[in-house]
Description:
The protein is an alpha+beta fold. Helices cover 28% and strands 15% of the residues. α7 (204-210) crosses α9. It has nine helices and nine strands. The N and C termini lie far apart (52 Å). The protein has two domains: 16-90, 2-Layer Sandwich (Uridine Diphospho-n-acetylenolpyruvylglucosamine Reductase, domain 2), CATH 3.30.43.10; 96-296, Uridine Diphospho-n-acetylenolpyruvylglucosamine Reductase, domain 3, CATH 3.30.465.10. Strands 5-6-9-7-8 form a five-stranded antiparallel beta sheet, covered by helices on one side. Strands 1-2-4-3 form a four-stranded mixed beta sheet, covered by helices on one side. It has helices spanning 4-11, 19-30, 54-67, 117-123, 137-142, 188-201, 204-210, 274-277, 281-295; strands at residues 34-38, 46-50, 70-73, 87-90, 99-101, 108-111, 159-165, 171-175, 247-254. It comes from Parapusillimonas granuli. This is FAD-binding protein.
Amino acid sequence: MQSSSRRAFLTGRRGAQTPWEAFCRAMRRAVEGSFFEFELPGAEHSARLIPKQATDVLHARKLCAEHGVLFALDGVPQAARLDEQPVLWVEPGRDLSACRRLEAGSSKWFVQPGCLLGELEAAGLAQFSDMPCHLSVAAWLADRTLCDWEAGATAKSGIVHASVLLADGASVSLGAFGERNTKPLQGARLQQLIPALFRLAAGPDAQACRLAGRWPARYRLDALLPAPGRVVNLAHLLLGHGGDLGWIEWVVIDEGLAEPLGEPPYSERYTPRRAEESGVGLQASELDAGVKSLFDPSFRLPFPGQDL
């Protein structure tokens, strides 16, 4: 009796592909970067992509959505194993690591997600001198412990602009937002997202969290509730985003505005228990759920509980 695989070989017909095999085949056709599968005992299928070009990420996000594969940022220190569904880990890599001044003499730097913090320090951005030099900018921006400025003080990050690819495929540009900003929000996705975030920031849960010295929720909605004298900057929503809200395509960092995070007292360092210890556990949880549902309503990116 011939096996199905032998019959397929003899007749020239391929056996039916599993959904994971179909995904991997489509990925290999679509991307220029390095793509390989690996298996973890007791877990669903896994693969890793190191993009060669920005369009590789666009193709990968689209295929993940079509095939029910989780799109996850690789290199996030606090990320747990994601075992319950197929996952594609995306590592920015050296082909997406540009770091250059916007123009001669400018204090603003254009930075891609694969740039290392050590490279930023070497370029003269002193705020990164005490940061792990091996971390990518993407991993830094996703790490809540390394983006833990005081509530309302997200401007100290030096981030002035960011482009982020959302889970639904929309690429949105985030930056300063206020009375003197006359540039309209570009695109239907951003026109829906930003007013909803402002409504969330005006609610009682956000107001309760804003009273804490250190922001207690996972997502930095205090970017919309800046300290007096600071302006709202929508790009600061991505500080410490955990890889849950989108893929950072690039950021602009102003070295003239950036301030080192410093070493907070041990009792004030970020942990997932901060909200409970601050007495706003329920409010922070509701706030995080609201932000996550606005950025990623279909949960195509990791769920925010990954760092429990």
